[in-house]
User: Which sequence fits this backbone?
């Protein structure tokens, strides 16, 4: 059974940093493209970032480029999102999601999400 | 950036009725469009990928169609658990984008 379990969310002040993690199991993590998608309270879905299986290829939404860094540890089946210079508009539930294929960037499995609140 | 516009924002129907949800792209996405269902407090669930392919375990009452810029998600006969929110997503161009969602509510 595929499982994605996010952790690391919480309350942080504007300008602060937070590191999210996603523990994956039940599939071949090392070859899977992984992504972060967020959802602000009461709003729709927003794609944040994607990372290739090898970790060598990344892409980011303009809204987070230069502030967020996606990474993975294939030895631990873990996906990470380092978030710096956080803003109030980054407040959201952050979902870890698995892409269906190397070039099939729709998401067949999702975690339950972790809430990040940016507020003073 | 490709903008996906979903309509209507809210669809009011009764159980057993047919639901037709629309997703229009600001430029062609070929067939690289997916549909998701999201229940309150839950993560999205993939329903349809590449415009018309049902994901694993998705009931046959869900179907997708379209190509280019105009896409449709059809629910042939609404079940009580179908009254939730639906999103479309394109994977044709970076950045990946989602539509704003359609809420299907009980009339």
Assistant:
């Amino acid at each position: 059974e595929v499982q994605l379990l996010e952790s690391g969310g919480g309350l942080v002040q504007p300008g602060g940093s937070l590191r999210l993690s996603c523990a994956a199991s039940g599939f071949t993590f090392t070859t899977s493209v992984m992504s972060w998608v967020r959802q602000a309270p009461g709003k729709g879905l927003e794609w944040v970032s994607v990372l290739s299986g090898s970790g060598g290829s990344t892409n980011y939404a303009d809204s987070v480029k230069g502030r967020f860094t996606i990474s993975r540890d294939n030895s631990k089946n873990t996906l990470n999102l380092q978030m710096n210079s956080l803003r109030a508009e980054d407040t959201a539930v952050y979902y870890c999601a698995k892409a269906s294929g190397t070039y099939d960037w729709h998401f067949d499995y999702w975690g339950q999400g972790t809430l990040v609140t940016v507020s003073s | 950036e490709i903008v996906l516009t979903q309509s209507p924002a809210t669809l009011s129907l009764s159980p057993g009725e047919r639901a037709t949800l629309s997703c229009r792209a600001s430029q062609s996405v070929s067939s690289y469009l997916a549909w998701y269902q999201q229940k309150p407090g839950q993560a999205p669930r993939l329903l349809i990928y590449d415009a018309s392919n049902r994901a694993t375990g998705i009931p046959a009452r869900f179907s997708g169609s379209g190509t280019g810029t105009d896409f449709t998600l059809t629910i042939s006969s609404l079940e009580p658990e179908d009254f939730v929110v639906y999103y479309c997503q394109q994977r044709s161009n970076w950045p990946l984008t989602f539509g704003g969602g359609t809420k299907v509510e009980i009339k």
Summary: Chain A touches chain B through 22 residues (CB under 8 Å). The two ends of chain A are 40 Å apart (CA to CA). The first strand of chain A starts at residue 3 and ends at 7.
